[in-house]
Amino acid sequence: MSKLPSPSNAPPIDPAALDRVAAALDPARLSRNTPLAPFTTFRIGGPADLLFEADSADALATAIAVAREVGVPFFVLGLGANVLIADKGIRGLVIRNTAQHAVWHDDGKVWVESGTIMQKLILEAVRRGWSGLEHYVGIPSSVGGAIWQNLHFLSPAPERERTMFIAEVFHTADILSEEGERKTVDKDYVNFGYDDTVFHHRADIVLATTFQLEKGDPFVMHRIMQENLSWRGGKHPWLDWHPSAGSIFKKIEGVGAGRLVDSLGLKGYRVGDAQISHIHANIMVNLGSATSADVIALVKHAQKEVKEKLGHELEPEINFVGEY
Ligand SMILES: Cc1cc2nc3c(=O)[nH]c(=O)nc-3n(C[C@H](O)[C@H](O)[C@H](O)COP(=O)(O)OP(=O)(O)OC[C@H]3O[C@@H](n4cnc5c(N)ncnc54)[C@H](O)[C@@H]3O)c2cc1C
Question: Hey, what domains does the chain have and what are their CATH numbers?
């Protein structure tokens, strides 16, 4: 999915099939030809044929079942923090997951629907004195996106200087499987790796997740959050001002993709309104009206320069979605 996209030659979708999907969904939460840029952190992306907002795990499962039954392609969008949506948009049904019901248990387990925003969940966990999620503060993500990607963070603090993974607090997930079955799966099934889970390889969808947290001291958790946010704020462009999708290239063990790009003096290099950030060479920012074509041209330029001058292959980390 993270290879550069080739021009789409998929046949157009039968409008009658789209109408059948639309007829089965709540019209109050459905729109047509809706631009997707506002629903991504890059602020880039053309329209969805159909955009449905799923505000519960049941609504998410129903929308997927309908699309599968009618044979219309669908895409589940979380917070849109790890995607580059094509300028032509996405054909078929886009389901924006805003399901965020939570059930807190006395033993530190919390069951949350997969559209829950991590930021909101972290604050509530800290307020209740449950530790384990606070390390991921400042990383834009829904719970579903975090599980899909095995969200991770290299902690800057000396006493915990290591990469932490969301897998460490994962207990189980309620999924709608590729075969259409609703079931609860454990860590073995999810098969967490670095930037990898079973969900990259099977069309299963995470409907909800149970995390196992531990009793913690809220003051320590607040300290960790302040340290992590300050570290992040100093190293990364600020999302509110400079939209991005985070790291653009996969890490290269022992070398660092950003370091390679930086060593060639490419910080600040622009194609249209897409720019290699001045402060982080592995992040591309949208200066206002960048298109996905601008970003792809910039990605290709960085790949070509690094390959020709340094001999390394840069592989994109973000997901290219839609009709290119
Ligand atoms: C400024 C910035 C900083 C970042 N820093 C980090 C970082 O430190 N560490 C890190 O790991 N990542 C980082 N990222 C990347 C991003 O935050 C994560 O990849 C995040 O988990 C994406 O979640 P999302 O909800 O936005 O997913 P989306 O971008 O909406 O979707 C990503 C993929 O997940 C799939 N998906 C979403 N929800 C579900 C679901 N319920 N079931 C199945 N599949 C689903 C989508 O279909 C898509 O293929 C950063 C991004 C930004 C913009």
Answer: 15-97 (3.30.43.10), 102-233 (3.30.465.10), 240-321 (3.90.78.10)
pLDDT digits (tens, 9 = 90+) for 290-302: 999 999 999 999 9
pLDDT digits (tens, 9 = 90+) for 260-305: 999 999 999 999 999 999 999 999 999 999 999 999 999 999 999 9
Distance 145 CA to ligand 1 centre (A): 4
What integer best gives the mean pLDDT of the chain? 95
Q: Whose CA is nearest to atom 37 of ligand 1?
A: 145
pLDDT for position 154: 83
- Which of 139, 147, 178 gets mutated to test ligand 1 (max ligand atoms within 8 A of its CB)? 139
- pTM value surpassing 0.85: yes
Residues 95 and 65: beta-carbon distance below 8 Å: no
Q: Whose CA is nearest to atom 1 of ligand 1?
A: 246
**Per-residue DSSP letters for 143-195?**
HHHHHHHT-EEE--SGGG-SEEEGGGGEEEEEEE-TTS-EEEE-HHHH--BTT
